From TrEMBL:
Family annotation (Pfam families): SNF
GO CC terms of this entry: membrane
Name this protein carries in UniProt: Sodium-dependent transporter
Locations listed in the record: Membrane
Keyword Oxidoreductase in record: no
Membrane topology qualifier: Multi-pass membrane protein
Keyword list, A-Z: Membrane, Transmembrane, Transmembrane helix, Transport
PANTHER family membership: TRANSPORTER (PTHR42948:SF1)
Residue ranges crossing the lipid bilayer per the database entry: 12-32, 44-67, 87-108, 146-164, 171-191, 222-243, 255-277, 348-371, 378-396, 416-438
């Protein structure tokens, strides 16, 4: 039991929960990471494996987190202590540590999106790719990056401090619809560009040879990306589901959330690639700076590019914000539930600590890349793997009963879900973890 005696917070509405989870899922992962993972890992071939993993790994794994959260009504550390024993009860700590690490560099990248929004307003994008690159390098690390990282964290702290209903739920109800409308609008615009058909061909027709030749890198990248983009493997969905009333259909909510996240990632590709092809820029250009170099250069080249860029980067900043608040809520919920700390105090203290941890990433791009790779291909996958083993193999009855709460008897669906967790999810995560570790070292 938690120490605090006030009743635990809850979402006001089902839509509020879904928006919050969509807000968490849709973020830099969709817009910053996804298109350039596609570019780096071989175009449509990567897209295909990614979509497959979303369906067979992401969906069952999300339900695992939902079930644990709703059943225990606690933060990830408390939840794991409640349902597991021995070393397994410490798995929640991996989640908290991962949240800390991810938010520390995520906020730095979010800071860049603020910088590039402002740059658009000043008509500051540089059409020459070389110049755009040096501009990015000078803005990405150093005092400017640290200040914007601080600004972003201050906003995150402000929202989380107001709590579930008045903070997070209210914020996402504005942010999520805005993200959806703007993304679709920009894709429609990108459709009219000269380079669109070439871009669609690149993005949508898979080259099977690439999968055969590069599966060792495509597989962990696609699994890691599936987890990252759905906010899995670090207890966000445990935490958000812990604020649910008991009568929701979790499978339906999960399908809606995944549908939105996948649609936004997919549509982002329909924006980014036509813009790049129109400006004559190679999409295979990898690295953390990707959208800030090639896409910014493309904005420097296009008519009214400053305006498009401002809208684009502004939307990315909003998407990053709705994800960052979920990362922070994982840690904050732990301190509130288990330590009885006041929410506002918790938000300021934890946000401050995360800000400090992010300073290395704000001073050195190489470090940021290392943090990102480590969190994405190792920590998230490890957390997801351990939780899936625990729930799939030793808590399956409890899990099936909890999934069925609010929907009635699941029949064969419940069994199918548990077996999906037991074999495909665990297998893919083990392989991805091994390949990810090999690649990291
Ligand atoms: N899902 C977010 C994105 O795609 O940007 C990132 C993220 C948020 C990852 C929360 C993990 C997480 F726990
Ligand atoms: Na995402």
């Amino acid at each position: 039991m938690g120490i605090a005696d006030a009743p635990r917070e809850q979402w006001a509405t089902r839509v509020g929960f879904i928006f919050a989870a969509v807000g968490s899922a849709v973020g830099l992962g969709n817009i910053w990471r996804f298109p350039f993972q596609v570019g780096q890992e071989g175009g449509a071939a990567f897209l295909l494996i990614y979509l497959l993993f979303i369906a067979i790994i992401g969906f069952p794994a999300m339900l695992v987190e939902f079930v644990v959260g709703r059943y225990t009504e606690r933060n990830p550390v408390g939840a794991l202590e409640e349902i597991a024993s021995g070393v397994w009860s410490y798995v929640g700590w991996i989640f908290i540590a991962t949240g800390f690490i991810i938010l520390s560099y995520y906020s730095v990248v979010a800071g860049w999106t603020i910088r590039y929004t402002l740059l658009g307003l000043q008509d500051g994008y540089l059409a020459d790719a070389g110049e755009a690159e040096s501009q990015f390098v000078s803005l990405a690390s150093g005092l400017d990056a640290i200040l914007l990282h601080a600004l972003f964290m201050a906003v995150v702290i402000g929202i989380v401090a107001y709590g579930i209903q008045r903070g997070i739920e209210l914020a996402v109800k504005v942010m999520v619809p805005a993200i959806i409308v703007i993304t679709v609008g920009m894709a429609a615009y990108a459709f009219t560009l000269e380079g669109a058909s070439e871009a669609y061909a690149y993005y949508l027709s898979p080259d099977w040879g690439v999968i055969a030749a590069e599966w060792q890198s495509i597989l962990p990248a696609a699994a890691g990306q599936a987890f990252f983009t759905l906010s899995l493997g670090m207890g966000v969905m445990i935490t958000y589901a812990s604020y649910l009333a008991q009568d929701r259909n979790l499978a339906e909510d999960g399908a809606i959330i995944i549908g939105f996240d996948t649609a936004i990632a997919f549509v982002t590709g329909l924006i980014v690639f036509p813009i790049l092809f129109t400006a004559g820029i190679d999409p295979a250009d990898p690295g953390a700076g990707a959208i800030f170099v090639s896409l910014a250069a493309a904005f420097g080249d296009l008519t009214l590019g400053w305006l498009l860029g401002t809208i684009f980067f502004g939307t990315v900043a909003i998407a990053a914000l709705s994800s960052a608040i979920s990362l922070m809520e994982v840690v904050v919920s732990y301190v509130i539930d288990e330590r009885g700390v006041d929410r506002k105090v918790a938000a300021v203290a934890i946000g401050g600590a995360i800000f400090l941890l992010g300073i290395p990433s704000a001073t050195d791009l190489v470090l940021l890349d290392l943090f990102d790779l480590f969190a994405d291909q190792i920590l998230l996958v490890l957390g997801g793997l351990l939780l899936s083993i625990l729930v799939g193999w030793s808590l399956s009855d409890l899990a099936i009963a909890e999934l069925g709460r609010g929907t009635g008897d699941l029949g064969a669906y419940g069994t199918a879900w548990i077996w999906a967790v037991r074999i495909p999810v665990i297998l893919v995560l083990i392989v991805a973890l091994i390949l990810g570790i090999l690649e990291y070292w």
